[in-house]
Amino acid sequence: MSHLGNATIKAELGRSTWKLLHTMVARFPESPTSDERAALKQFILLLSRLYPCGECAEHFQKLLAKYPPQTSSRVAASQWACAIHNHVNQRLGKEIFNCADIEAKYQCGCDAENTETTL
Ligand code: FAD
User: Which of 49, 85, 102 to mutate to test the pocket of ligand 1 (most atoms within 8 A of CB)?
Assistant: First the structure.
């Protein structure tokens, strides 16, 4: 993977990716099927392989080896994503987010009849 030297691009990419990840797990089923669980895990593992910032991908893969994606429920996945983001925040010297506020911050933004991900 090539090195993304431009700090602005790296930060924009990071913000967009975190937004996608947190919003996606906020819509993950409360009681996922084994197929849905496998899909989320695969998505995260592939994201860590293909993430277009080499330094970030390398660190993310190490984090995933230590803290594997939690996919048993929406809450488990959301709390896991929050904790992983906080590990990255800590490494970069950024503020730690209070994961008790995660539900309020990442509402699904979808219509009421379609609040869960359809995989
Ligand atoms: P971001 O960290 O992008 O967060 C965006 C917003 O999410 C914040 O403003 C806040 O409202 C909210 N937020 C903050 N913490 C949490 C949380 N724990 N849970 C939920 N919401 C939260 N950059 C590097 O320089 N080096 C790296 O090694 C690196 N690795 C990365 C790995 C991954 C997988 C990703 C997605 C990004 C990585 N980045 C890395 C980018 C970095 O994490 C930031 O996205 C970037 O520096 C911009 O930071 P920011 O301050 O705008 O907020």
Answer: 85
Ligand 1 neighbour 82 (Cβ under 6 A): yes
What does the pLDDT look like over 14-26, one tens digit per residue?
Answer: 999 999 999 999 9
Asked: is 21-111 a CATH 3.30.230.10 domain? The reply is no
Q: Supply 87's token pair.
A: 């590990």
Is 50 exceeded by the pLDDT of residue 1?
A: no
**Domain ranges within the chain, ordered by starting residue:** 21-111
Query: Is the dihedral angle over the CA atoms 32, 75, 68, 95 positive or is it negative?
Result: positive
User: What is the 113 CA–ligand 1 centroid distance (Å)?
Assistant: 31
Tokens of 3: 């090195």
ipTM over 0.85: yes
Please state, for a pLDDT cut of 70, what percent of the chain lies above it: 86
Q: Which atom of ligand 1 is nearest to the CA of 21?
A: 36
